[in-house]
């Protein structure tokens, strides 16, 4: 996999580059958002890993560049790896496109194997969100549990959506037909009031709601079983 890293900290940039190169990936590393945009156009990576705050102002250059790249290349995997949760643009990034996005906090990435799994999932079109990111993004909102309206099977489907599975993958996991999974997906979208939008993915918005509720309750989701419907 070809990976482009944009990180202004030389120590972290070189550490990530060595880690990923040791895993057999083709890695290019840059230190500014301008270089990130230029190199993405030049080499067409499978995955971009970008910091939020980068030179010259160290404000939102990194995540702004990530938004630009997702608009330009919707299928490009984009992982924001940062010390901060940038509220202004984080929701727009996570809810845009068709997936292939992630947002992880640097000081919470302690498990190398889990990190490597996350980047593989993002590059394949899935998602990886740090629960703390979700908690902070939605901490100001007061509302009832939106998942309470879902059936048990719809909850199973939503959990597997959050793991990055396609409808076909969910069907295989739950021993259902693909058409049955599509019906469950459309039903849970309706119950969560996620209307179709040309700019925001229903799947990613549903995943954000799911992860928020898991974070707020502190209760891990139960494993989906393979009963039929």
Instruction: Please give the largest β-sheet.
Output: 6 strands, parallel
**What is the CATH first-level class name of the largest domain?**
Alpha Beta
The CATH architecture name of the largest domain reads 3-Layer(aba) Sandwich
What is the helix fraction of residues, given as a range? 40-55%
The stretches of 5 or more residues where confidence is low (pLDDT under 50) are: 225-229
Number of domains: 2
CATH superfamily of the largest domain: Response regulator
Cα-atom radius of gyration: 18 Å
Instruction: Decide which structural class fits the backbone.
Output: alpha/beta
The overall pLDDT average reads 84
Strand order of the largest sheet: 2-1-3-4-5-6
Number of helices: 10
Please count the beta strands (DSSP E, at least 2 residues each).
6
| N- to C-terminal distance | 39 Å
CATH topology description of the largest domain: Rossmann fold
The helix/strand order is EHEHEHEHEHEHHHHH
Overall form: globular
Proportion of residues in β-strands: 5-15%
